[in-house]
Task: structure prediction
Amino acid sequence: MVYDCGSCMVKYVLCGFNFIIFIAGTIVLGVGIWLLVDMSSFIGLLKVVPADKLETFISPTFIQQVTYVLIGIGAFMFLVSFMGYCGALKESQCMLTLYGIMLIVIILVEITAGILAAIYKSKAEVETKSMLKLSLETYYNGTDTRDAVTLAWDSLQISLKCCGVESGEDYQNNKAWKDQSYIIPSSCCALSLDNKPLDPTCTTSPNDVNSYYRLGCYEKTIEWIRVNINIIIISAAVLGLIEIVGILFAFCLAKSINKYEK
Result:
């Protein structure tokens, strides 16, 4: 139906880009559904794959929590890309318009979140700290249970060399730690290359030498953001540009289709 060169190019760019996102979304959604209906076979498959520290990420608790995240992300990618791909391929004005509206909503949500964070910066910092402390004090399950929250905190503390939200003292409000002899988890300690504490007494007698007990992860995260702010800004700008181009392409193609239908 679309005959001019520009509209044809827009059509196939939209098709190609959304087809890639569609395939990725389908894979993510498929893995999430597989985990939901048959977690045991997935764990069995992962166990035969040789990979260092893979056992950390194949606990049933962790996988169960990740399942719903995968299904949510996969379904969202699937829906949006399906509208863009099929709308362009079938030259459906309705689907292309809906696709463009979806992208506009996504951009508006992103802009609104950024504006609110800037306006209520102080309150946002307080709320963020409270949320982080709640996750650490309520859902961090100690050394035995490897769930998503525990793994996330351990990974953050190891990578940023920090402990707790404001300091290692945050763990004293965690019931799982009150029932044990530990003061801090091993991820707060100075670690060897295989992520073992250099000082075996670190978890029970932390100090400034054998651990990062006094270095809170919130401040370390803010510091990391400041150091990498240029990369973050460029990434956000590229993402926003892609979304804007998608919106323009969708509406331009829809207008072109409407013109030829008349």
